[in-house]
């Protein structure tokens, strides 16, 4: 539960490829007012960014 998003936020966590660029939502480590994390385990995300290859070899 996020105070700004409510109980069931639209983008609660994961990778959303419907956007350009891709949207990555991390569920985070901390808690808000409610200290229980029911079905929402803490996580740390590692994202590796790579340059897209072009026709010119760049």
TrEMBL record:
<protein>
    <submittedName>
        <fullName>Uncharacterized protein</fullName>
    </submittedName>
</protein>
